Amino acid sequence: MQIQVLKSKIHRVKVTGADLNYIGSITIDENLLEASNIIEGEKVSIVNINNGERFETYAIKGQRNSGEITLNGPAARKVQRDDIIIIISYATLDFEEAKTFQPWIIFPNENDNSLT
Question: pLDDT tens digits, residue range 95-115?
Answer without folding.
Answer: 999 999 999 999 999 999 999
